[in-house]
Design goal:
Blueprint (H helix, E strand, L loop, with lengths): L2 H4 L8 H28 L9 H24 L12 H25 L5 H33 L4 E6 L3 H11 L5 E7 L9 E2 L2 E5 L4 H8 L3 E4 L6 H12 L4 E4 L4 H5 L8 E2 L16 H7 L3 E5 L4 H11 L5 E6 L2 H14 L5 E5 L5 H11 L3 E4 L6 H6 L1 H21 L4 E7 L8 H21 L17 H5 L2 H4 L5 E7 L1 E3 L5 H10 L4 E3 L5 E2 L1 E3 H14 L5 E4 L5 E2 H11 L10 E3 L19 E3 L5 E4 L6 H16 L5 H8 L6 E2 L2 E2 L13 H12 L1
Parallel strand pairs: 1-2, 1-5, 2-4, 5-6, 8-9, 8-11, 9-10, 11-12, 12-13, 13-18, 14-17, 15-20
Antiparallel strand pairs: 3-4, 6-7, 16-19, 18-22, 21-22, 23-24
Helix pairs in contact: 2-3, 2-5, 3-4, 4-5, 11-20, 13-15, 15-16, 15-22, 16-22, 16-23, 19-21, 22-23
Length: 683
């Protein structure tokens, strides 16, 4: 040991020790004074009237009793309590310690001194309890008064929910741990109306929210209704939005059951609260049993959907998880996250493109994944309209190459992640995803017919074919891969989602840009989307398109206005909303199924299977080969080829069908036209 380590640190009296010493000195005076005042009360506050016998007994026993009280209070922990947080447990301990010492006082005086008047014992016990309790709880009371005084100009809070959760939030606010004070409470239980909780009135039910907000000058609304259904919460939030107040919501039942319910646990109301339906919570045990002990590949594993797939898969003991992505930063982020959380996970992170047939085949050949979730895709509608060939190369042809490599290397299940934009597509991105669906349906049809060898080998490297690499026709005869697609709507919080864009625009002070006042979209959360994708892997028998019943569609204009209101601002007053027009390839509404497709219900009533639309598989595969050549020579007329292959594709631009550029025929200019042209040129 070093010399410095041998030296003992000088003793230092901590702050709480100083408080405890002062409290002990006070208690010595308080308990002695309590019984002296009891004597004075007994004899009408006439000191000369007190018999010498009684006064002498009190004098001889006062210091002994004070020491006894100090020892007892130490045993009950009354000098180590943080009294600013004192509550019922502390009240019980102080009361018990005081009553015990009063009982010992009575026994000692009877046994060793003299019998004192009964009123002496009674008044002494009461006064001692008042003195001991008073000093300890006065600190909290003073803090309460100071906080209440300081909050006169701060936030005025409406609390919705007069149950246990609401009471816990109310106490937390009153304790000064929130910048505001609760001025009224709303609850649908009419039995509570007009009554008070901690001096705050329960004003009425949800129908009284607007009236109460105006009457009390409410600036913030706290929702403390963890057990309410999604529909009830949506209705209440819709009313609250009309007040223009900032709204904060309790995340759920977890904090309520764990006792961690505080004002700081409240979060801003998210747009998920306004979806109008309860979250999809399927039983995932079957999924996890299916994944357990298998090698799983996730293409596009660094994206919003792909990364959530990786998180859920990693938590349920796969034999190996392979993340394949072209963007190294996203792949690296999810790699670090999973390694930190699951250090024993056999994790492989590979960089590459699904468009590179050699690379994707190498991955399948080296690792032999049994389950593939194909999430790699270009998804941005306007950008793909400007680069249509890239959408076809990456989405349609990339899916084809990945599916072929999976088929040739013994993959059991191939799950394609599709979109509702594939239904009657008006943009090249949606059309490319419809091509992806047709690809996996074609593969499934050929495999089931025992004709996998007829699937064209669409690759650009002419040296070796997939069939040669995998063992030729023998390998093709042993294929058992099942191909399915999963179709869902817009994902809240995903890369490119409209909600984060709106939030950033609100933070900048606006304007919030909406393409069209009547545009609607279906929404779902990332966990819901991932659950559906994973369920597809277990429900699959090949060729299905799984569809989620996403409830009612959401009007984007309403969504933007609700986000502004939930930020405590007023649409078109504090934050301006601008309508910028439909973007290239965008339509007013999305559909979940084509008219020709029927629905079959699965065990989960909100997850359906769309019956495949019949099409000529051989013709499709032949035309797809031609589309590959068109895409790789970057032919600007690629939309015409796609429209021929995908009959439901009707390209539009800003809501209008895209027509070929008109042929301009030069005509002789009139004198007036010539003058106008000259005037424009001069300007």
């Amino acid at each position: 040991m070093t010399r410095r380590e041998n030296e003992k640190k000088p003793f230092r009296l901590e702050h709480w020790m100083k408080i405890a010493l002062l409290m002990g000195c006070y208690d010595v005076i308080a308990v002695s004074l309590a019984y002296f005042l009891a004597l004075m009360l007994r004899f009408d506050f006439r000191y000369t009237s007190i018999p010498t016998l009684y006064l002498g007994a009190w004098q001889r026993f006062a210091l002994i009793y004070a020491a006894l009280c100090i020892v007892t209070f130490i045993a009950f922990g009354l000098y180590k309590t943080i009294w600013r947080f004192a509550s019922f447990p502390e009240l019980a301990r102080v009361t018990a310690a005081s009553l015990l010492t009063s009982l010992l006082h009575a026994l000692a005086t009877l046994l060793f001194y003299t019998r004192m008047p009964i009123s002496y014992y009674a008044f002494g016990t009461i006064l001692q309890l008042v003195f001991v309790l008073g000093i300890r709880f006065s600190y909290r009371f003073v803090l309460f008064l100071l906080n209440r005084s300081a909050k006169r100009g701060s936030d005025r809070i409406m609390l919705i929910g007069a149950g246990s959760a609401g009471q816990m939030i109310l106490r937390d606010v009153n304790a000064g741990r929130s910048n505001g004070r609760v001025v009224c409470i709303i609850d649908d239980n009419s039995n509570k109306w007009g009554r008070y909780i901690e001096n705050v009135r329960v004003y009425g039910g949800r129908d009284s929210i607007l009236e109460a907000a105006e009457r009390y000058g409410v600036t913030k609304i706290f929702l403390a209704i963890p057990s309410a259904s999604m529909a009830e919460r949506r209705d209440i939030i819709s009313i609250c939005n009309e007040t223009g107040c900032e709204i904060k919501n309790l995340p759920g039942m977890y904090q309520f059951f764990t006792g961690q319910l505080t004002a700081s646990a409240l979060r801003n109301v998210s747009i998920e609260d306004l979806l109008g339906r309860d979250p999809i919570k399927p039983d995932m045990q079957e999924v996890f049993d299916f994944i357990n002990g298998k090698t799983v590949l996730v293409t596009g594993g660094g994206g919003s959907i792909g990364s959530e797939l990786c998180r859920q898969i990693a938590g349920h003991d796969p034999k190996r998880l392979i993340i394949f992505d072209i963007y190294e930063n996203n792949a690296y982020d999810i790699q670090l996250e999973l390694k930190n959380k699951y250090p024993k996970l056999d994790l492989v992170v590979l960089i590459g493109s699904v468009r590179d047939s050699r690379r994707i085949y190498q991955v399948f050949s080296d690792y032999r994944p049994e389950i593939v979730y194909h999430a790699a895709a270009h998804k941005h509608v306007p950008l793909m309209e400007d680069s249509p060939c890239e959408a076809i190369k990456n989405n349609a042809i990339g899916t084809y190459k990945t599916a072929y490599a999976a088929m040739m290397n013994g993959c059991e299940r191939f799950v394609l992640i599709s979109t509702d934009k594939a239904v009657n597509p008006t943009n090249i991105m949606g059309a490319s995803k419809r091509l992806c669906e047709m690809v996996i349906q074609s593969f499934d049809a050929k495999i089931k017919a025992g004709k996998a060898s007829e699937i064209p080998k669409l690759y650009l490297h002419r040296d070796r074919s997939y069939a040669e690499l995998a063992g030729g026709e023998k390998a093709l005869g042993e294929i058992r891969t099942e191909f399915v697609a999963v179709r869902f709507g817009n994902v809240l919080g995903s890369n490119g989602s409209v909600v984060p864009i709106f939030k950033r625009q609100i933070e900048r002070g606006g304007p919030v840009t909406v393409t069209h006042p009547d545009i609607i979209r279906y929404f779902m959360t990332v966990p819901e989307a991932v659950s559906l994708v994973m369920l597809a892997g277990t429900y699959a028998h090949g060729g299905e398109i799984f569809v989620l019943d996403m409830g009612s569609p959401v009007k984007i204009d309403t969504l933007a206005r609700n986000l502004i209101r939930m930020s405590g601002l007023k649409p078109d007053v504090d934050i301006k909303i601008e309508y910028i027009g439909l973007r290239p390839g965008e339509k007013l509404y999305e559909e979940k199924l084509m008219a020709e497709e029927g629905l079959r219900t699965t065990d989960n009533k909100l997850i359906h299977i769309g019956c495949p639309i019949a099409f000529d598989v051989d013709r499709f595969l032949a035309e797809l080969g031609e589309l590959v050549e068109v895409a790789y020579r970057n032919d600007e007329s690629i939309r015409d080829y796609v429209e021929r292959i995908v009959p439901t594709y009707h390209p539009t631009y800003n809501g209008q069908r895209i027509l070929p550029d008109p042929v301009v025929i030069e005509e002789p200019k009139t004198q007036t036209a010539a003058k106008a042209e000259a005037a424009v040129s001069a300007v």
